[in-house]
């Protein structure tokens, strides 16, 4: 239950700072994880990306402000962090479907999005197989792309990189360098708040190549979940890990990268493992 309380405390922080810049790192600290992991947890639990949730809450309050007499649109825009009236107008219309100037007209409907509140519901309908493994540090070689702080943007960045390395032959080159555990093509997300966020497509290897990057995955404990299927099935497995397993597991996120291990990289029927860094709850 403590895990759910932390999420609700983070929502409380968002509500208190809707007229200011939201500090994502602060949200992560409240929830005792990195800002990356907080965004992912929030998205899976709330069913909406964190950035979109904040936009909806701000535009809900902006509509109430505009319904009051004597408040200028430009002042409301500034209140919620929009220096450009055009940007505010775009955000307002994306939520309410009408321009801010139309709100004062009698009979015009706007939308209200109340604050979310999380609670624990244990489903237990479908089993989840997993194992806990503590591993020593291991070296990987491959290619990487920077990850955006708004993690929703990465759903376009990462697939493009995979497609690129398939087309230019880099993936084939990587499989030839794989010679240490874990055996498989790796997707490694360095997503803590102490190093740059990057996504590596790599293999564990003792070899070097001047055209490839190197990174050392630190020693850590992971909860390892096997799976099979397409990219969408990986996202569904990750959603279930966060919403069903993690709240009642006795673990919380650890300070290490997320790792995807593709044992069979067939995009239509991949065999894979999802590694989530964990530590025992105090």
User: How much of the sequence is in beta strands?
Assistant: 15-25%
Number of strands: 9
Q: What value does the average pLDDT take?
A: 90
The shape, in one word, is: elongated
Q: C-alpha Rg, in Å? A: 22 Å
Structural summary, described in words:
This protein has helices at 2-16, 24-30, 35-46, 50-67, 73-79, 85-96, 154-167, 170-177, 231-245, and strands at residues 131-135, 138-146, 185-190, 198-204, 213-217, 220-229, 251-253, 258-264, 270-280. The protein is an alpha+beta fold and 282 residues long. A hairpin with a 7-residue loop joins strand 3 and strand 4. The protein is elongated, with a radius of gyration of 22 Å.
Keywords:
9 helices, alpha+beta, 22% strand, 282 residues, elongated, 9-stranded antiparallel sheet
